[in-house]
Amino acid sequence: MAAPPLLLLKDIRVEHGDPPLLDGAELSVAPGERLALVGRNGSGKSTLLKVAAGLVRADGGSRFLQPGTTLRYLPQEPDLSGFATVRAYAEDGLGPADGAHRVQYLLERLGLSGDEEPGRLSGGEARRAAIARVLAPQPDILLLDEPTNHLDLPAIAWLEEELGAMRAAMVIISHDRRFLATLSRAMAWIDRGRTRRLEKGFAHFEAWRDEVLEQEEVEAHKLDRKVVREEHWLRHGVSARRKRNVRRLSDLHELRRQRREHVAPQGAPRMSSFDAGGSGTLVIAATGIAKSYGGEPVVRDFSTRVMRGDRVGIVGPNGAGKTTLLRMLTGELAPDSGEVAIGTGLSMVTLDQKREGLEPSATLGEVLTGGRGDQVHVGGQPRHVLSYMKDFLFAPELARMPVSALSGGERGRLLLARALARPSNLLVLDEPTNDLDVETLDLLQEILADYAGTAIVVSHDRDFLDRVATSVVASEGGGRWQDYAGGYSDMVAQRGRGVEAKAARPPERGAPATPAAAPAQAPRAARARLSFNQRHALQSLPGEMDRLRARIAAAGATLADPGLYARDRAGFDRATRELAEAEAALSAAEERWLELEILREEIEGSG
């Protein structure tokens, strides 16, 4: 016989407009149960969790908590005001029978001393303090709203392990699919104000959701009801995209195979972004770049090549220098030493992790149109704002909603919509998955799968990187970075471990990045080296490629004259031959340069 629930919500109704945000929602939490609470951004997940915590009074329905049950709630935005130190804030959550020693243990594991002043904390540090506060009492029920927000990969892995060892019942909202799949044993899905429940973990969610929506469509046809076109797209289009992603998975494997061929080891839907035109084959070439702050190396002797069509993930603990590396690769920040060569014809669009630039009083429609009429210029072509909104899963009636009323995930989706309307062939995304729901993550994955250009992504989302990345650049500590072909799981398999917490001290100069896998060093005299001709070619080829591009541009300009063929047939033929010869020579030069770069890195890596 099943144990009676510790917490029971029945027929919950919350009216935040018409239709109600929640209308008949239910939630039951038994002892030791681990429940993933899922739903689209703005569906009411956080509101239902606040009702469960007793912080929000519902407009209808009932809430029952077993007498004597201890419950702790982790909000998305913890408030530490009124406390002198982080330790005082964390200890304030303890009950009469709880000991303060666990608070100190948790703070230390989360990278805090406890003596920090709350007013000086970053968003990530405040989140860590709040996690220590709710975990310290070891309550009967934990209600966790986006616990992995602002946490780096080592902290997420530690939190998974800590929560997995606890006996408390848990209800978890998270955009991190790997985190949910690891911890959940059942699901509650908020859909159009109501909840549906499945007694399986989150790994089964997408297949279950698609099955439910398809069955609904069948039932609608049986009843001879007309499915409203916009609603059909907003809901059932998700299922269609999911099916297309099965094909895209094989495409990703092919991209990763191609990436492996030119990555040299170092040391051991309608939803679309709009192409600004093709870049060159080589997008970014970094050679021996380095950067230090205050004498501490952030990037040390790093070399890589990013080719057209690559999707490169950058991973590492907080403070490792991911954003610094990203800024150097894109030319925004000059390295202290080494060189970054940026390819030709690049048009870059950036989405940073701060996601600033949204005026709270502006409406969703005004953000997309710039406040000018009802047209969005997408890739230089006008589209009606309501049509473009639908591509990003926004219902038409939200066009006049102010930004201040949007959830964090909806704001993230809006920024994506605005950024991706701009023509580009290089996307630079710094933590794009923060606060996004599963369906919006599917949308972003599809955008990247269909994107004709190149993408560089900084992310702590392991599942997202597995689904989109063709290679991963990982921090090895002490300013060392290494390029691995494949997604996050491929990196772990090659490396033998995941991303680890930033070391208190960088390794000594000359220490290998991965000691267990580092080959024994050969005597200097026995090492392979480039020949004089190879070194000369490596130095001279970039200039030769620039001259060939100038010839191509000149020949193209000549052929652009519409009257040339009739006026000067011989001149037309000469320009045509010149264009073909220069393009063939450029392709050969690029290939030769890449071969020599791979050889150089193999030699330096083996040394």
Explain this structure to me?
By secondary structure, the chain is of the alpha/beta class. The chain has 18 helices and 22 strands. The chain has a 6-stranded mixed β-sheet with strand order 5-6-7-3-8-9, sandwiched between helices. Strands 15-19-20-13-21-22 form a 6-stranded mixed β-sheet, with helices on both faces. Strands 2-1-4 form a 3-stranded antiparallel β-sheet, covered by helices on one side. Strand 21 and strand 22 (480-485) form a beta hairpin. Helix 8 packs across helix 13 (438-450).
Write the layout of secondary structure elements.
Blueprint: E1 7-14, E2 22-29, E3 34-38, H1 45-53, E4 60-65, E5 71-74, H2 86-91, H3 101-109, H4 123-135, E6 141-145, H5 153-165, E7 169-173, H6 177-183, E8 186-191, E9 194-198, H7 205-222, H8 229-262, E10 274-275, E11 282-293, E12 296-307, E13 311-315, H9 322-329, E14 337-342, E15 348-351, H10 364-369, E16 375-378, E17 381-384, H11 385-391, H12 408-420, E18 423-424, E19 426-430, H13 438-450, E20 454-458, H14 462-468, E21 471-477, E22 480-485, H15 488-495, H16 532-559, H17 564-567, H18 569-606
Parallel strand pairs: 3-7, 3-8, 5-6, 6-7, 10-18, 13-20, 13-21, 15-19, 19-20
Antiparallel strand pairs: 1-2, 1-4, 8-9, 11-12, 11-14, 16-17, 21-22
Helix pairs in contact: 7-8, 8-13, 16-18
- pLDDT below 50 for ≥5 consecutive residues: which ranges? 225-236, 263-277, 504-527
In spatial order, strands of the major sheet run 5-6-7-3-8-9
Can you say what the CATH homologous superfamily of the largest domain is? P-loop containing nucleotide triphosphate hydrolases
Average pLDDT level: 81
Report the oligomer: single chain
Task: Give the CATH level 1 class of the largest domain.
Answer: Alpha Beta
**Helix count?**
18
Q: Tell the overall outline.
A: globular
Distance between the termini: 66 Å
What is the domain tally?
3
The count of β-strands is 22
Give the helix/strand class: alpha/beta
The profile of the biggest β sheet is: 6 strands, mixed
Instruction: Give the name of the CATH architecture of the largest domain.
Output: 3-Layer(aba) Sandwich
Strand content is 15-25%
Radius of gyration: 27 Å
Q: Bin the helical content.
A: 25-40%
CATH topology of the largest domain: Rossmann fold
